[in-house]
Amino acid sequence: MTIARIVEADRKATQSGKFGTGRWQLEFERSQAQRPDPLTGWNGSGDTRTQVRLSFKTKEDAIAYAEKQGFDYHVVPAAKTSLKIQAYADNFR
């Protein structure tokens, strides 16, 4: 059975704005274990579904797609972080 993970997109560490946040991605769980390639030594598997990421505007759209396709799914919300805003001079108090 195909298992999907629905993840809330979080802003990247190099991103200062809020562009792209609040979007949801549907990713597939790995169905085969990775194994080292005997020639290169890199890990890999025959499962190519982990390379697919579908983007949705809302969580409900992603869930509706997963249910329509018959995927088992679980929802992973983004970690909420809070910033402590302070002046540079506060570092020397």
Automatic annotation (TrEMBL):
Its main location: membrane. InterPro entries: NADH_UbQ_FeS_4_mit-like (IPR006885), NDUFS4-like_sf (IPR038532). The keyword Acetylation does not apply. Gene3D superfamilies: atu1810 like domain (3.30.160.190). It is found in: Membrane. Keywords: Electron transport, Membrane, Respiratory chain, Transit peptide, Transport. The keyword Electron transport applies. This is ETC complex I subunit. It comes from Sphingomonas alba.
